[in-house]
Amino acid sequence: MEMKSSLAEFAPDPKRALMMGGVGRFFMIIGIILIGVFFVASIVLSAWSADYWSFDKQTRDEAKVNESVSNSLADDVEPVNLWRSIEILRAWSGGTQFLGMGLLLFGIGLQLASILGILAGQAKYMSEELGPELKGQRKSA
Description:
By secondary structure, the protein is mainly α. It has one domain (28-129). The protein contains 3 helices and no strands. It has helices spanning 14-53, 57-69, 78-134. The two termini are 28 Å apart.
């Protein structure tokens, strides 16, 4: 008489769980890389902001006006180019760091799911191997 385990329906294939763990590791690495690159980019952004704020107020205001009014006339002005670089990096930085954090957390979730899958697969294997012998034993309180 063969005993059927209740975990047999829920336990995934351990090989699939291992593959899922590898995919989780990949997402974690990509997330950490994105966070690290844009952390360094944020440090560069602070240096560029310091350079931009070293100009007098009139030059800074003209840079903002010249950028929106006439791009062709403002291409050679350093505050305009610096302001453009700051705004571009600021626009990309927040969203990309958020994406990196999301990928990191998604990778952690896949790793945890693979651990649960492997444990469930091992429990299924052990219950199939030791099933008839465990039938007469009672759980301790």
